[in-house]
Amino acid sequence: MENNNYFFNDVKEDLKAAFEAYYNLIFGYYDLNQPQETKIKNLSKVVKNEVYDKGGKFNSLFEKIWKLEDEIYFLEVESKKDDKNFDVDKGISVQIRNLYDDAIMKVSRLMFMYGVQYGINLERCISDIPIHFNKEESN
Question: In the structure, how many helices (H) and strands (E) does the chain have?
Fold first, then answer.
């Protein structure tokens, strides 16, 4: 292979697009009920929204996170309701939510890219295995 980094150099934008689609699907930002751009089965019939659907693998965890975010938000709003300079959009709960969302996005992208690199390395290892093994001769 002439360039060991060919995959990342040549298809970086495609990888980013693939990650965005993966992230949006897994974390519930993809509207599964909308018609799909490609001619495949409607994803809502075959893919559970793991974040928003009851029974989804991430649903109970995110329910707890959202509940805590709401509690912080309402506590902050209640405690600062008389402060005319208070901007809820700059409050602690919104900052936490935004930082959390950024962290999840970055961690997810990193894990996705690690997965892609692992797949490339695995494919390289498999391609190095000879196709024809020496068969033992039976007598």
Answer: 5, 0
